[in-house]
Design a protein that fits this description.
Pfam family, one: EcsC
InterPro entries: EcsC
Protein name: EcsC family protein
Strand content: under 5%
Number of domains: 1
Largest sheet: none
Number of helices: 10
Organism: Halobacillus salinarum
């Protein structure tokens, strides 16, 4: 079902209100206190080096994806679908000429494909092999980073542009945060879009990861432990429980990431239209 422009804007408003109104439960607040206390006693230089290396890995992963044939094929696929709606589209920037409902339709195809990849990868990890468990977290991060990139490309933003690269990494970071923390990250992203003066300069802090982001790796660790616990529970030779845990966990993460990224690029589209005299948000 394709929503009208006004309905899509209203749905976006409700989604933003929802993440802003999210209330952390007692367990989440206890976890936050524990993390803050744990990192409070660490040397600042140690923390800085750790998170700097993590940020560097994300930057390199982003650059690596841009050069893969897998990503180039996806790029061409997006352009081909775009030409169905407007045969004058020749490059990614031309995608901005499409309407918000057309762009959302194309982006949702990328979203569905990304969720399918994550589901399959999680199921494969659930077979319990040590190699697959070892590479599960970096592969999941790359798959989700790629999904954010494809959504950004769909909305006409070149991901190899330095500004767009950093912005997409910020979106990825915000999307992988726990829901109770996404409101603050959303405000930062919205402020960056609103206050952007120079298309080549990113005004906000360019740091990506911090101790708040570590909940996601912790969740992946617990998922791996559960997979190991149930990998010997076989049904006709297949560890169905472990496979189910891996597939469901990875699918849910990609669902969260792609939903956040899609809403952000929709928001950005509306802000651009607002600057051109249309007010839908």
């Amino acid at each position: 079902m394709v929503l009208s422009r006004e309905s899509m804007a209203e749905e976006l408003k409700k989604w933003i209100d929802h993440i802003k109104g999210y209330q952390a439960n007692d367990f989440e607040m206890m976890y936050d206190d524990w993390v803050n206390q744990s990192f409070y006693h660490l040397d600042e230089k140690v923390k800085y080096r750790f998170f700097s290396r993590l940020d560097t890995w994300l930057f390199h992963s982003h650059a690596f994806l841009q050069g893969t044939s897998f990503q180039n094929d996806a790029r061409e696929r997006i352009l081909k679908i775009g030409r169905i709606f407007n045969n004058e589209i020749e490059e990614i920037n031309d995608m901005k000429e499409l309407s918000i409902d057309q762009l959302t339709y194309i982006a949702e195809q990328q979203v569905a494909r990304g969720r399918l990849y994550s589901f399959a990868q999680g199921g494969l990890t659930g077979t319990g092999g040590w190699l697959l468990l070892g590479v599960d977290f970096p592969v999941m991060m790359i798959l989700n980073l790629r999904a954010v990139q494809l959504i950004g490309l769909t909305f006409g933003h070149e991901m190899n542009h330095p500004y767009e690269m950093l912005l997409s990494l910020k979106v990825f970071h915000a999307a992988t945060l726990p829901k109770r923390m996404q409101s603050y990250a959303w405000e930062d992203l919205a402020a960056e879009v609103k206050n952007q003066k120079d298309p080549y300069v990113f005004e906000a802090n360019d740091q990506l990861t911090n101790e708040k982001w570590l909940e996601q790796p912790f969740k992946q660790t617990f998922k791996s432990l559960f997979i190991l616990m149930f990998r010997k529970k076989l049904f006709q030779g297949i560890p169905l429980i472990s496979v189910g845990i891996g597939a469901y966990s990875n699918f849910q993460l990609t669902k969260q990431v792609t939903e956040f990224a899609l809403k952000f690029y929709q928001y950005r589209y509306f802000k651009m239209e607002q600057e051109n005299g249309h007010d839908y948000t």
